[in-house]
Fold this sequence. Notes:
With 332 residues, the chain is mainly α.
Amino acid sequence: MDNNQKKPRVFSGIQPTGGFTLGNYIGALRNWDKLQDECDCIYCVVDLHSITIRREPAALRRAVRESAAMLLACGVDPARSILFVQGDVSAHAELSWLLSCYTQFGELSRMTQFKDKSLKHPENVNAGLFTYPVLMAADILLYDTDLVPIGSDQKQHLELCRDVAGRFNGIYGDVFRIPEGYFPKVGGRVMSLQDPSSKMSKSDENDNAKIMLTDAPDAIIRKFKRAITDSGSEVRAAEDKPGIVNLMSIYSALTGKTFPEIEREFEGKGYGDFKLAVGESVVDALAPIQSEYNRIVNDKAYLNDVLSEGAQRAGAIANRVLHRVRRKIGLE
Length: 332
Ligand code: TRP
């Protein structure tokens, strides 16, 4: 390996809320695994971000451990990457405050996620919900990150991060590396099985709309059998067949088959056969993940070791950057 050629630094985070869906896996976690070959990856369970909504303490603690276990089961490899819990590294909260003094009220007010969430939960529009993107900027900037794998819903937050970092650099010189987004190609967006016009979401109240990574095989097959399809009976990628296209995307992502190959495979067969095949491809893909997950989530000592080592390694990097920032501002 050429030591002068430093690998790009990747940072990404995921909230520990209510388990992960097939959409999280295909759109994000599968890529987290792949990126480890080419990049220097740091992956974070963002517990601090998740408390903008009230959480039961025991449930939050459990969700953080289960999320970390699932990331490991999906291939995050602590021998090659850093996996840690955001709240274990206090530099995140500290840099978030510092950056908030370089972020305008007006630009945070324009964040569409803030507007959506405050409309949805008018009873709890807390300041954390408002400054959420600043904490996310701190997460990213603390690691001199080059690439940030995110879904398109987080694009605006990344733009804000780049703006704030650029503004800070404009005042103090080259302090922060300006990160780029990394958007997965096809298969990036898995839609609801009950409404192909909206994204598959872990918070969907309709259990049939989503596949959770921990779903049992019979539940997975049942949900695919019930998936909303379109009129007609041909398995074909057409604009008026969003339900079929969604199922084709899932099947393609998991089997590596192209759309024309899938159309040929199911020529002369009905939706029923196709849905069963998609369900089976999902069951097959999730089987090894589920067995790894069950092993890891029950191995408390191993999980503790991984997360405490992760926090130590992340903290060492983050604290160097934090000191750099504190010196520039005049706090040291
Ligand atoms: N806000 C992101 C989401 O909801 C999660 C997140 C927090 C994140 N910090 C991050 C993603 C830093 C990438 C980088 O999906």
